């Protein structure tokens, strides 16, 4: 019976810590999702700028070709593309 009481008390003691860790984890996931979205949109913007100016700036065409690999899997324009594994 003593072992049961110790286990039960430990369970009660750990429950609030587990809730805090879970809340922190949820917050971290939301932050990571927002950051992924922000960086994807910025990447698309940069790619579109590079693509538009590729013929105007010497050497930019090579950069545009390299960047196009990142967007090659997607249908449509880079404006509507989503990252691999994204939802």
Provide the descriptors you would attach to this structure in a database record.
87 residues, mainly alpha
Nutshell version of this structure?
The chain has helices spanning 2-53, 60-71. It has 87 residues and is mostly helical. The radius of gyration is 24 Å and the shape is rod-shaped.
Per DSSP E runs of 2 or more residues, the count of β-strands stands at 0
Biggest β-sheet: count, sense, barrel? none
Strand content: under 5%
Helix content: over 70%
Low-confidence stretches: none
**Which of globular, elongated, flat, extended, rod-shaped describes the shape?**
rod-shaped
Order of helices and strands: HH
Distance between the termini: 50 Å
Report the average pLDDT across residues: 87
Total of helices: 2
Query: Structural class, please?
Result: mainly alpha
Q: Estimate nothing, just give the exact number of structural domains.
A: 1
Rg (C-alpha, Å): 24 Å
Characterization of this structure:
This protein is mainly alpha-helical and 87 residues long. It has one domain (2-71). 74% of the residues lie in helices and 0% in strands. The protein has two helices and no strands. The radius of gyration is 24 Å and the shape is rod-shaped.
Topology overview:
Blueprint: H1 2-53, H2 60-71
């Amino acid at each position: 019976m003593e072992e049961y009481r110790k286990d039960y008390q430990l369970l009660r003691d750990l429950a609030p810590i587990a809730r805090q860790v879970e809340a922190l984890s949820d917050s971290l996931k939301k932050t990571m999702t927002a950051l992924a979205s922000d960086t994807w949109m910025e990447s698309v913007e940069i790619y579109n700028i590079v693509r538009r100016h590729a013929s105007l700036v010497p050497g930019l065409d090579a950069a545009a070709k390299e960047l196009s690999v990142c967007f090659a899997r997607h249908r449509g324009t880079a404006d509507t593309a989503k990252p691999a594994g994204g939802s």
